[in-house]
Every structure is written in C-alpha cells, then in structure tokens.
Amino acid sequence: MNAEMPPGRQALRLVEAMLFASAEPLSERDLAERLPAGSDVPALLAQLQGECAPRGVQLARAGAGWSFVTAADLSPLLARERRIEKKLSRAAIETLAVIAYHQPVTRGEIEEIRGVQLGKGTLDALFEHGWIEPRGRRETPGRPVTWVTTDGFLRHFGLGTTAELPNVDELRAAGLLDARPAIRVLQPDGGDDAGGPSVAIEPLDPDGG
Questions:
Q1: How far is residue 167's CA from residue 178's CA, in Å, rounded to a whole number?
Q2: pLDDT of residue 66
Q3: Distance, CA of 152 to CA of 159 (rounded, Å)
C-alpha cells in the first residue's frame, strides 16, 4: 500500500479497480471480500458514484450489483446498428410487464391478469434473455413456480430497483395507458351506456391491486 495515501483513498481506488476489471456487476459482499476489514462499502460506493457523476463513465446500481455504465447523455452518440437475433413478441412484452409489476407471480396468475392463455415458449424467451428467473413455488395446489425479474432486466432498462418502475399516472402521461377509467364489466347487450361497443381496459397496477 502507498504509505503517502490515506487508507480510505486506497480502498476507494481498489473498489474502482475491481469494478473496472470485472466482466459482471459486483455486489457489496463481493467487494467487501477483497477490501480491508472494516471498510464501509456503501460509503465507498456512494463516494465513487459522486466522483464519477460528471464523467463519461458512471457508476450505477442494478439490483444487488454495481458496475460502470456509459453516461446516459452519451449513449446515443455511441449507439450503432446491430442485428437483433430474436425480437420479443407483443405477448412476451406484456408478460414481462405483468411479472415486473406483480412479482412474484405464477404462470396461471399471468394468464388471469392478461386474460389470455400464455403461449408456449413465452416464458422461455424471457428467461433466455436473462430478464426473468424462477423464485420458489407458490404454496397452493400443484405448487406452481413463481417468476420474478432479474438484475439483468434492471440493467437493460436502466433501473436501480423495481421501485423505479413508472407508476400508472406516469404511464398514462406517456400515452401508454388509456386515460379513461377502466371498464371492468361489459353491458349485457354488448354496448355501453352511449350505445357504442364497450372496451375492457385493464391497466396494470404497480401496487399489485
């Protein structure tokens, strides 16, 4: 260790070096195992994150992992066209949204929320992308598997935690949900009060309601 450098500064440099050298995000536990005993890992990460804030490469958290990422304002300048080998279907995207807002959730619960049967391979496609993973079983008859999103999902969408997912009001403001109240029951004659056809609108509720 450099005798002229304060121990705290040396620990900060070590955290930076480990994150830079790692091909995968590192958790606070991963970092603590290589740091001097008694190091305040959260404080070191917060300090490094602050120092990197104005730089082109910044420190970001996704779930339990920390890694260096390109500054958001520079990403468009570095983007380049690339071939996408497998594009997600609309059903897969809707399924991913249901899992993100209602996790942990079973296949049957996903089908109930979406109102349609889940196609074969939909969950497999999301699992292959590394965006969902199984998380135990529901203590109900049949003990179905429950699904949750992964840290890879958070990294891909630039989120620190699932708490940063947009709420219903934000989705409506972005034009992604109908601003009218949800119509949960169709009229017996197939029409609404105005005489036109009813449309069932069931926006996802981030609070699980």
A1: 14
A2: 92
A3: 10
Three-state secondary structure readout of the chain? CCCCCCHHHHHHHHHHHHHHHCCCCECHHHHHCCCCCCCCHHHHHHHHHHHHCCCCEEEEEECCEEEEEECCCCHHHHCCCCCCCCCCCHHHHHHHHHHHHHCCEEHHHHHHHHCCCCCCCHHHHHHHCCCEEEEEECCCCCCCEEEEECHHHHHHCCCCCHHHCCCHHHHHHCCCCCCCCCCCCCCCCCECCCCCECCCCCCCCCCCC
Domain 7-77 sits in CATH at 1.10.10.10
pLDDT in tens, 41-79: 999 999 999 999 999 999 998 888 999 988 888 877 877
Q: How far apart are CA 109 and CA 100, in angstroms?
A: 13
- Separation CA 137–CA 203 (nearest Å): 26
Domain boundaries 90-165, corresponding CATH code: 1.10.10.10
Instruction: Report yes or no: 174 and 167 within 8 Å, Cβ to Cβ.
Output: no
Amino acid 71: pLDDT: 87
Length of the chain: 209
Strand partners for 191: 197
Domain positions in the chain are: 7-77, 90-165, 178-209
